[in-house]
Amino acid sequence: MSENVKIYGYARVSTREQNEDRQIQALMKMGVPKKGIYIDKLSGKDFERPQYKKMLKKLDTNSILYVKSIDRLGRNYRDLSDQWRIITREKGADVVVIDMPLLDTRRKKNLLGAFISDLILSLLSYVAETEYETIHQRQAEGIAAAKARGVKFGRPPKPLPENFQEVYLSWKENKISAKEAARLVNMPSSTFRYRAAAYKRKS
Predict the structure, then answer these.
(1) DSSP secondary-structure letter at 107?
(2) Known active-site residue 14
(3) Which of 12, 69, 75, 85 is deepest in the core (most CB within 10 A)?
(4) Active-site residue, from 2, 14, 43, 177
(5) pLDDT tens for residues 56-83?
(6) What is the DSSP code (8-state) at residue 47?
(7) What's domain 6-134's superfamily in CATH?
(8) Helices (H) and strands (E) in the chain, counts
């Protein structure tokens, strides 16, 4: 390897609670210096990530970028393909996807190799995006099915105070104002109106 080659690594986790250690270990095992590893703790839905942008500015024709897997780079099929083109063609850098040896542009310097690499990238990024969308669709379907069964989400409302029915009836008969009713049941006026509407539906 040329002494002029600059080696970088990119790692990404979706949330601050997730741990990036496995990715960092895999990158360092490939010879990436720790100071050359850029880490974002953000979703992979787009490339609006500060550390990714900072790393991208460093890349040139003497650079090699390592990522553990293609979905760590990104999940959106179109954006991922665009960024791959920017890195490999506009910047002239090489990309090595550790978990997928076929995605190693150092070995694909001829036209056929470039075509195969781009084809594999398209397939993998499509699968990654489809899997991501499928997970979210299943989550949405699961929530909808649970709601249909009567499952309640979020915190349960606080129990009504003992005098709520008496105050509610006085307010309903216009004997007291909503403001006075809210004071008597120790609630903000907006909360009283909301709970009163819910009480009416159940009555």
Answers:
(1) G
(2) yes
(3) 12
(4) 14
(5) 999 999 999 999 998 898 877 778 878 8
(6) S
(7) Resolvase, N-terminal catalytic domain (3.40.50.1390)
(8) 8, 4
